[in-house]
Design brief:
Elements (H helix, E strand, L loop, with lengths): L2 H25 L6 H6 L2 E8 L6 E3 L4 E2 L8 E7 L6 H14 L3 H5 L1 E7 L7 H9 L6 E4 L2 H10 L22 E4 L5 E5 L5 H14 L2
Amino acid sequence: MSGVQKTVLVTVAAIALVVGLTVNKALRPAPLNEAELQAAGVYLFDAPRPVPDIRLTSSTGADWGRGDLEGQWNLLFFGYTFCPDICPTTMAELRQLTLSLPEEDRRQLQVTMISVDPNRDTPQQLHSYLSFFDAGFNGATGDPGELARLAQALSVAYIEPDTSEENYLVDHSGQVIMTDPQGRYVGFIRPPLRPAELSQLLPRIMAKAD
């Protein structure tokens, strides 16, 4: 191989390296910063927190527990189907958010409504309610003690109602919990949700933790 050929090969290799690094940088998600996240109501922990192994029943009638959080990202919302305001609004916003995500990210994300009203929210009731949103949402509820243990671990507040009253309401907080594919609690989103901003941030959050 002549000196000229060697020079050409070295030059081509150098150009390919530069192009590759440039493309990689362009495709890499922009780094997240705390101010940008908080402006969208997103708060991420410095280190993931464990989720207890609880036993609930899903809206399909199957067992539901910590293992159901593994293998994909999850957004968990604690509410109930007879809620007159914040719950239908939040679920509609979560539908808007998920449907605006790129297809690949949408496949890696599961939204689950955890009902804090097991007295009325049977699996059938949850399934019927979530089907209305037509977005592949899951649901879970069950023993009040198990619900309380999960809510406490995820810093979610609610007050068990007096179920003897007709058309009772359940006071509960409105944040959306985020867990990663390892089933760990990694952060939360404060209400009101901002679907347009979150649809840009969530893919970057998911990619950053890969």
